[in-house]
User: Fold these one by one.
Assistant:
Number 1:
Amino acid sequence: MISRRTLIAATASLVATPALAQRKAPVAETTINPVKLMEAGPLPEKALGSADAKVTIIEYASFTCGHCATFHNTTLPKLKEKYISTGKVRFIFREFPFDPVAAAVAMLSRCAPEDKYFDVSAVFFQEQASWARAQDVVGALRTLSLQLGFTQESFRACLTNQTLLDGVNALRDKASNDFKVDSTPTFFINGAMYKGAMPIEDFDAILAPLL
């Protein structure tokens, strides 16, 4: 039987229990001058959110990277809702292909209409398993691209655009040489570098003192 004394003691211990500690923000790998990060690159920027936002998040990602797909499929929608759509954060996406297939998908995303870039790239991340693991990767990409509004001709023209391929490769090389990016996803948040597909809670902790 639970006595009144036992109940009071148990209640007191609950009241005395300290609150859970606030989540600690990940430690930045290094910091790059934000002005240098924002210098014009070999390709036009792909960005979401207000240009006047207090915080800028730059992501370097490879379309064949599973961790990048996890971020885009699960965390980016929450970032959009909490920070990007509210004008607090500007999000910039930069391609960092690790292989020819990732470069091809980067090219296809950039060949989409300007206002459809993030819609198209989102589908490629959502459907990553269906094309990245296909025996006929080109055929799988063609099928998905046709569903996204490409024609046979525009699909072929995009993937044979040497100027665009050179730009994608130059974007990767600039990140590697100038900013020491060597894995994906890599994020720069107001210049501070963080690696890995961080959950929204980590972004919350990092962004809190910046906003």
Number 2:
Amino acid sequence: MSLDRLAFIAVLAAMLAACAPMRSTGCASGEQALVHDSLIFGTGKPRGGVVTSAEWAEFLKSTVTPRFPQGLTVSPASGQWRGADGAIVQEASQLLQLVHPDDTASERAVQELVAAYKAQFQQEAVLRVKARACVSF
């Protein structure tokens, strides 16, 4: 391959790389490409009892809201999962839905609130479903 041809390919590759941030997100006009996180927090405590409504409200106020002050949605839920010991556990849960930018700060904030919940309420896990979404307000 000639040097001219290699130079052309290198310039073309650089131009395409520069255009990468401008590629279409697949979202329609008026929509933003954001992340939609669904987090499911079990309320059963391993030593008995449950996370009370007051404890959950305080967790939202002191841990979640400071990290996601732009908004969130919470719904009561019920479900089941298999614990590390193989037993099926059925329990009431809280479904927290967050829509946020796909950035390091938001990712860190989600990880921090999951870790805080697990530590505060001795939880084995918090289910996280993370998806890219086209959002309009």
Number 3:
Amino acid sequence: MPDLQSQFEQAVLAATRLPSRPCNDTLLELYALFKQGSEGNVHGDQPGFFDFVGTAKFEAWGKLKGMSRDEAMTRYVALVASLDT
């Protein structure tokens, strides 16, 4: 069985090839899990008030603060697998 990092990398690739575009809530979840799994806790300045997409992404990632990178990668892999049908 491939290690978690390899599974995560394969899931990132698979996410770009999904048969249909997920809903916005799922896209935010994918983004947040990807960022938490690859970079850890949220960092940097929060986007400006009128950057609605950037703010939504920043807040979604921020909700995962404290989640381990391994857990985020595991959840990302599972979410992509559930969408790739």
